[in-house]
Design goal:
Blueprint: E1 4-6, H1 12-26, E2 29-33, H2 36-54, E3 60-71, E4 74-85
Parallel strand pairs: 1-2
Antiparallel strand pairs: 2-4, 3-4
């Protein structure tokens, strides 16, 4: 499964649509963000995705965790949020 990577400049509606689409198809999505701006966009997108999915009768939960990822040879701490139907 691919991880939905969010940046500070990511469009909230586009990320929300991606999350909702993956949940509808695969019943499991992972969203990853590094930095305050990216985390902010991620949270707003998840709220919007939750609203999209509620219209289809799907209630979701979000499970956040810290993960270490390697970017350009350096280890960075990211926030990864698992999205699953309740």
């Amino acid at each position: 499964m691919d991880i939905i990577k969010v940046r500070a400049v990511s469009r909230t509606a586009a990320v929300a649509g991606a999350i909702a689409g993956v949940i509808r198809e695969q019943k499991h999505a992972e969203v990853q963000a590094i930095g305050a701006g990216a985390v902010n966009q991620s949270i707003k997108a998840m709220i919007l995705a939750r609203n999209f999915l509620e219209q289809d009768g799907i209630d979701v939960v979000f499970i956040p965790e810290f993960v270490n990822v390697e970017i350009e040879g350096k280890i960075r701490t990211a926030i990864r949020i698992t999205v699953e139907p309740r």
